[in-house]
Amino acid sequence: MRLMLLRHAKAEKAPPGMRDRDRGLTGRGQRDAAKIADYMVRHGLQPDRILVSGAARTRETWQCMERAFAAAPVEYEDRLYESGPDAILAVIRELGQSASALLAIGHNPGLQDTARLLVAARSRGAGELEDNLPTSGLVVIDFAGKSWRGLALRSGRIEHFMTPRFLKAGKT
């Protein structure tokens, strides 16, 4: 099984009176989301199911990426909005065997904390998760097993960790 956790792209600051969940992406965010999608395609990181937080910035992140991928079921899941690892893991585990390659687009610190809980301590790249999962940051974690229901903590191995800054520096 493969879990791809993607933090939403760079979002605009909320003007007074705007709800946090209504913030859209900046121009840089739109470009970064497209670049991460291109990276995913180049590396064969094709999701067969996509979960997207209900916030505007996560929806817009997916809109900037979706043309790079073949059709896959997309679900907008409000439980991913500003959630911690317990809620995020519950949503993933509910999927059972419905997907072998899952992309979840959400928010920090929940995604970063979830990734840290899932990755084996000695997994290559585990240290990179300690600092930050920046906007448009992607962490790809592989697991043995056939069902998300049995997803165990500390059982994953990082296969990819990519950020827009790494792409700009030529780390592809």
Question: How would you explain this protein's 3D organization?
Answer:
The protein has 172 residues and is an alpha/beta fold. The chain has one domain: 3-Layer(aba) Sandwich (Rossmann fold), CATH 3.40.50. 31% of the residues lie in helices and 19% in strands. The protein is built from 6 helices and 6 strands; from the N terminus they run βαβαβαβααββα. Strands 3-2-4-1-5-6 form a 6-stranded mixed beta sheet, sandwiched between helices. β2 (49-53), α2 and β3 form a beta-alpha-beta unit. α1 crosses α2 (56-65) and α3 (85-93) packs across α4. The longest helix has 16 residues, at 27-42. It is globular, with a radius of gyration of 15 Å. The mean pLDDT is 93.
Count of DSSP-assigned helices: 6
As laid out across the biggest beta sheet, the strand order is 3-2-4-1-5-6
Distance between the termini: 23 Å
Beta percentage is: 15-25%
Order of helices and strands: EHEHEHEHHEEH
Major sheet description: 6 strands, mixed
Structural class: alpha/beta
So, CATH architecture?
3-Layer(aba) Sandwich
Protein topology:
Elements: E1 2-7, H1 27-42, E2 49-53, H2 56-65, E3 74-77, H3 85-93, E4 101-106, H4 110-118, H5 128-131, E5 138-142, E6 157-162, H6 164-168
Parallel strand pairs: 1-4, 2-3, 2-4
Antiparallel strand pairs: 1-5, 5-6
Helix pairs in contact: 1-2, 3-4
Question: What characteristics describe this protein?
Answer:
single chain; 172 residues; alpha/beta; Rossmann fold; six-stranded mixed beta sheet; 6 strands; 19% strand; globular
